Amino acid sequence: MKASAGLLAHAETALRELLQFSGPADQVLSRYFRAHPQLGQRDRAFVAESGFAVLRRRRSLEAISGSAEPRALLAAALMRVLGFSGRALEGVVDAALAERIRGARLDGLPDAVRVDLPDWLWQQVLAQEGRDEALALAHGLLNPAPLDLRVNVARASREEVLARLSRDGIEAGATPYSPSGVRLAGKPAINQHSLFRDGLIEVQDEGSQLLAYLLAPRRTEMVADYCAGAGGKTLALAMLMRGAGRVYAIDVSAKRLAALGKRAARAQVSNIHSWALASDNDPRAKRLGGKLDRVLVDAPCSGFGTLRRNPDLKWRHGPEAITELAQKQRRILAAAARLVKPGGRLLYATCSLLRTENDAVADEFQAASPDFRPLPCDELLATQRIPLETGVRLRLAPHRQGTDGFFAAAFERLRGPA
What we know:
By secondary structure, the chain is an alpha/beta fold. The protein folds into two domains: 5-109, no CATH class; 206-413, Vaccinia Virus protein VP39 (Rossmann fold), CATH 3.40.50. Helices cover 46% and strands 15% of the residues. The protein contains 20 helices and twelve strands. The strands form two sheets. Strands 5, 6, 7, 8, 9, 10, 11 and 12 form an eight-stranded mixed sheet that branches. The chain has a four-stranded antiparallel sheet with strand order 2-3-1-4. Helix 5 packs across helix 6 (95-103). The longest helix is centred in the C-terminal third of the chain and has 19 residues, at 319-337.
């Protein structure tokens, strides 16, 4: 493909907006495409792919191009990440810049630059993991994520969905861990497929699917997804309950919860009850105190485990934000724990890789909550016939399990004094 000057100009303009980090990258691009309806599907794909390539590899591209200017970063991304030849960019990229990009080497540059992380984040990962593991993790986060689906196994088997996808020319296979997971070989417009329209599949990373199996709700139980958002995990819980029992989708944002109604209707799920929290002391939450069998707390977090999908997060969040998030996570976990009845299960989870948001929060809760005891996540998954050695706490990472980065700690409320 030869890049035209007009298309490169669109990519540069969109990239300038992305680099302002005024909001999530996908929303920035959506606004840009709405403002420029003349761009066709292939043009939009070029703009998005080149923009995300820069967001993933911003530091190394600055080193390669010798500039932080969007035009130079875009040229470096096209040549060094997306594989465009000098001939394909001839006449639209400055010849001297192209020559500099072509001859640049990353040898001798600091590790943080070569793995495209901010210095502060690299230092935290390095301190946690050691250099070899930190490098492997950081490199794993640079690769684009696959497209994973969750089959609504209450209405269709995974084998049936795979057969249907194959008949329609979509290459896919079973995920290695989640019993309801499907991984696509490419990135088809799956939301246009009848399987999606009929509620038989949902887009959901395999790691996220595993949280529902860790909570393992039973059909007759009362369950809460305490930070439900748009309800992806809520739907997974309802699926495992086969439409019986009751699932409370709880979140502080009524706007995010609004999307769940349509998704639940599409999946033909009727046991979900949504409500937006007015505060940590919401009277409805108080009425549920000590009554729920299982509570999932997928807490708001940095999202650094999802950098394959959301590379802008590493530039939008700083260390101060992590400290604030950890404080919020502690409050949310304590509030959600009050809903769990004796003998019930509590699951704290994030899509972060940082101990500040993960083990530190879980350890503090455990120390302050003698009425809860830890449950080993590997044993919980084994009861679901999921062959995944995680240790007492779940830790997933792209370079090891091929999923987004996830953390989870499970607890049981004691029936009596410890």
